[in-house]
Amino acid sequence: MYVPFEQLPPQARIWIYQSDREFTETEAAEIQDKIEKFVTEWSAHGQQLHASGQLLHRRFVVLGTDVNVTAPSGCSIDSSVKFLRILEMDYQTRLFDRTHLAFQKNGAINIVHLTEMPAAVASGEITAETPYFDNLVAEAGGLKANWVKPAGKTWLQKYFS
After folding, report:
1. What are the pLDDT tens digits along the chain (161 aa)?
2. What is the biggest distance separating any 2 CA atoms in the chain, rounded to whole angstroms?
3. Per its UniProt entry, which superkingdom is the organism in (predicted)?
């Protein structure tokens, strides 16, 4: 059952998938429609999940479900992965590659490959204060409070020591 994302409780479980490219405006509208259709039908053991999804910044697919109503199961997680793999094929993108790190700089989202982090830090391109999209956030309440935060306050802090 589709629930508007802002109506998910703070403890709702979320998953964030980052595209390796920004989608066009047309693609973003299509993808948002597909996300809403998927979560409307998303279920666990035959029970509808109270779920939502959104495309943020034309790059991040966020799926969420209220675990207090119906907890997701292995099969429901598998179906979401299948859905995301279809998006990857349809839009020629990668949503499961965790080696591309997203930073906010001058109002834009810049991607730095994990292997390039030491050089980006050494050159000053990325600092401990550079806003980083922490896609490890796992609850809806954390999306607003903890998704974008200074890189030095995330698992990337090791690069600034």
Report:
1. 888 999 999 999 999 999 999 999 999 999 999 999 999 989 877 888 889 999 999 999 999 999 888 877 888 889 999 999 999 999 999 999 999 999 999 989 999 999 999 999 999 999 999 999 999 999 999 998 899 999 999 999 999 98
2. 53
3. Bacteria
Number of alpha carbons in the 13 Å side-chain half-sphere of residue 50: 14
Per the DSSP assignment, residues forming a β-bridge with 150 are 131
The C-alpha atoms of residue 82 and residue 141 are separated, in whole angstroms, by 26
User: Long-range contacts made by residues 115-121, C-beta under 8 angstroms, separation at least 24?
Assistant: 117/156, 117/159, 118/159, 121/159, 121/160
C-alpha distances in Å from residue 89, one per residue of 81, 83, 92, 121: 12, 10, 5, 33
CA distance 138 to 129: 22
The partner residues of 61 in beta bridges, in order of sequence, read: 17, 55
**120: Cβ–Cβ under 8 A, 6 or more apart, which residues?**
112, 126
pTM of the complete model beyond 0.85: yes
